[in-house]
């Protein structure tokens, strides 16, 4: 609507849907070899019901797209 074609920071907190949503967004860019339309991704990960292998595959997709972690904060709920 504003004519922008690049997002500086994309923030996502979608309660465990981040895995499928980001795969849907990122995979087409990987397929055609184009850079992502955003520079940084701020995301809250919900690892409920995810195996290590599922998270690793997803994380490697993010890295293949050029994203790198630069901060982490662990939140423990009691």
Structural write-up:
This protein has one domain (7-64). The chain contains two helices and two strands. It has helices at 18-32, 52-64; strands spanning 7-12, 38-43. The N and C termini lie far apart (43 Å). 3% of the residues are buried. The model has no long low-confidence stretch (mean pLDDT 91).
How would you briefly describe this protein structure?
The protein has 78 residues and is an alpha+beta fold. It is built from two helices and two strands; from the N terminus they run E-H-E-H.
Question: What labels would you give this structure?
Answer:
alpha+beta, two-stranded parallel ribbon, 78 residues, 15% strand, 2 strands, 2 helices, single chain, 36% helix
Percentage of β-strand residues: 15-25%
The overall average pLDDT, rounded, is 91
Q: SSE order in H/E notation?
A: EHEH
Helix content: 25-40%
Structural class: alpha+beta
Strand order of the largest sheet: 1-2
Report the uncertain regions: none
């Amino acid at each position: 609507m504003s004519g922008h074609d690049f997002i500086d920071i994309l923030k996502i907190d979608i309660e465990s849907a981040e895995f499928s949503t980001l795969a849907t967004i990122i995979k087409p860019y990987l397929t055609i070899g184009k850079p992502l339309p955003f520079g940084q991704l701020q995301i809250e990960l919900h690892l409920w019901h995810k195996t290590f292998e599922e998270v690793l595959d997803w994380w490697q997709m993010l890295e293949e797209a050029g994203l790198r972690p630069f901060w982490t904060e662990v939140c423990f709920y009691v």
